[in-house]
Amino acid sequence: MPGVRWSGTVCSTGGVLMVHHVSARPLDVGLTLGPLGHGPFDPAFHRAGDGSVWRTTLTSTGPVTQRFMTVGPREVLVHLWGDGAPQSADELPILLGEDEDTTGFAPPAKLRDAQRRATGLRLVVTGMVLEALVPAVLEQRVQTPIAHRAWRRLLARYGLRAPGPAPAGMRVVPDARTWARIPEWDWHRAGIDPARARTITRCAAVAPRLEEASAMPRAEARSRLERVVGVGAWTSAETAQRAFGDADAVSVGDFHLAATVGWVLTGRRTDDVGMLRLLDPYTPYRHRLTRLVLLDHHPGAPRRGPRRPLSEYRAF
């Protein structure tokens, strides 16, 4: 977007780096950072009772714990602890979507109310490809609670202790070398089948090449991700949404998304082909539109059968 979009002040005291970030447009930190959380007990993401959002990440200069506290409709105070704090401070505007251009985005009338309620929604940009890719692989072809449980177990065992006064149990995601060295039996104990475990190991083995995708055009970046055996269109889209802030990356193959999009936009369920047809007029903002759909979908498309019981890989 043209013009000044944000300003910030940085100060350091007592081992904590503080950033006062002021945007020129509304900023909803909870909605913006929300996709980075994987379940209510994610060791790398925590919503506190005081309204603050805690997050950990592993930057190229070291681990960092981030605490985001909203102080106004366009202002957020961020506390940073750890060796990665200075780099994290520099990258905060990118993370919070300050570079996102939404000037051509016009949702349909049915979603105008959702857009009004989500005025401060930005598309998060972590720039961390493997960090986004691993949980996406864990969520392939399994029920979401099962994937979230596996993520918790793996981070509890292999993640780094979160720097600073992070809430109890918070961890920092492992580096690529650690992911590559997880033994087969620990994947099994976490409930991860050999196919997904091998995909993560392959991704970790070429992590430097995958991280380069952050600086590529979006189509080329996703193509590079999908060259790894086991990474398909759904997984690359989920990764692109979080790591690149790709406003057009649609999660084709999602178990619920197509039916929800069809129901909200037309009052009828649809499949992936129908969903893409409905979303086509909103290119290059199709993912941004689905974010509004998911915020506005309740009660959602009616179910066609009873809820499936959770099924663990280890039970087979």
TrEMBL record:
The keyword DNA repair applies. GO terms for molecular function: alkylated DNA binding; DNA-3-methyladenine glycosylase activity; DNA-7-methylguanine glycosylase activity. One of its GO terms (biological process) is DNA alkylation repair. Keywords: DNA damage, DNA repair. Residues 297-316 are annotated as: Disordered. One of its GO terms (cellular component) is cytoplasm. PANTHER family: DNA GLYCOSYLASE, DNA-3-METHYLADENINE GLYCOSYLASE. This is 3-methyladenine DNA glycosylase/8-oxoguanine DNA glycosylase.
